[in-house]
Amino acid sequence: MRALTVSGHARSAQLPDVPTFQELGIAFVDETSWYALFAPKGTRKEIVAKINADMTRILALPDMKEREATLGYRFIGGRPEKLDAMLKAEIAKWAEVAKSASLAAQ
């Protein structure tokens, strides 16, 4: 079996010679799965900051870097504002997909 392309904005560390869809000129395929940690609305900012700092530290550990490569993941991390912006962009993107497919909100 031979990989032809990978999704996401960057090449996979496991398959560095395999181009992304975007590199092949297929811009509409720009989707990856992602995971995030969320806290209940109203969680104190210092608690969110502590959890974020802990996650940043954990994601930088050598064994996590090894696990990231083994699983083919890209651990990104970052400030809560970065996640908020990404979520807003995802909601807008998928709302447009639903609209173009004539899907109505239920």
* Tally of helical segments: 3
**Radius of gyration, rounded?**
17 Å
Order of helices and strands: HHH
Number of domains: 2
The structural class is mainly alpha
Shape: flat
Task: Give the overall pLDDT as a whole number.
Answer: 86
The largest sheet, given as strand count, sense and whether it forms a barrel, is:
none
Walk me through what this model shows.
By secondary structure, the chain is an all-alpha fold. It has two domains: 1-32, no CATH class; 37-100, no CATH class. The protein contains three helices and no strands. It has helices spanning 45-59, 62-71, 80-100. The model has no long low-confidence stretch (mean pLDDT 86).
Keywords for this structure?
single chain; 106 residues; 2 domains; 0% strand; flat
Task: Provide a short characterization of the protein structure.
This protein has 106 residues and is mainly alpha-helical. It contains 3 helices and no strands. The protein has 2 domains: 1-32, no CATH class; 37-100, no CATH class.
Q: Could you outline the blueprint of secondary structure elements for this entry?
A:
Blueprint (H helix, E strand, L loop, with lengths): L44 H15 L2 H10 L8 H21 L6
